[in-house]
């Protein structure tokens, strides 16, 4: 990855809708060169997705929660099964398998506390392998995003 790739990636993290023409003025390459670099960055998997970030309140998902989950058994099959269930749950925005006191940290959205309680009944109380979970409701979203600082290698 060179300086131009890093400039393209940093610009796209601010606005994924930038055209090759707009990128060309930012990075100092022709639009065609930017298109070719974008195609390579996408094909290589460096660019995993180009998504829209929604306002949770505008789509009736105004309750955001950070949840730590501990499993009773940590066999690979149990861990993989829990990962699969969290991937399939639309409420789960992010799921991390972590070190420390908990096994997983989830970021999830709910319409309200009743909706979240239904989620816990389905995914935590309904799973014999969930030992415990601890929830924190988000009071204010100070910063949200996936931007990574990219420097040339």
Tell me the name of the CATH class of the largest domain.
Answer: Alpha Beta
Structural class: alpha+beta
Strand content: 15-25%
Q: Determine the N-to-C terminus distance.
A: 6 Å
Helicity, as a percent range: 25-40%
Largest sheet properties: 4 strands, antiparallel
The rounded Rg comes to 20 Å
CATH topology title of the largest domain: Alpha-Beta Plaits
Low-confidence stretches: none
Count of separate structural domains: 2
* Average pLDDT metric: 96
Beta-strand segment tally: 4
CATH H-tier superfamily of the largest domain: Lrp/AsnC effector binding domain/regulation of amino acid metabolism (RAM) domain
Layout of helices and strands:
Layout: H1 3-14, H2 20-27, H3 31-43, E1 63-71, H4 76-88, E2 92-97, E3 104-110, H5 113-125, E4 130-137
Antiparallel strand pairs: 1-3, 1-4, 2-3
Put the structure in a nutshell.
It contains five helices and four strands. It is of the alpha+beta class and 153 residues long.
Characterization of this structure:
Helix 2 crosses helix 3 (31-43). The protein has 2 domains: 3-43, Winged helix-like DNA-binding domain superfamily/Winged helix DNA-binding domain (Arc Repressor Mutant, subunit A); 56-137, Alpha-Beta Plaits (2-Layer Sandwich). Strands 2-3-1-4 form a 4-stranded antiparallel sheet, with helices on one face. It has 153 residues and is an alpha+beta fold. The protein has helices at residues 3-14, 20-27, 31-43, 76-88, 113-125, and strands spanning 63-71, 92-97, 104-110, 130-137. GO terms for molecular function: sequence-specific DNA binding. Residues 1-64 form the HTH asnC-type domain. This is Leucine-responsive regulatory protein. Keywords: DNA-binding, Transcription, Transcription regulation.
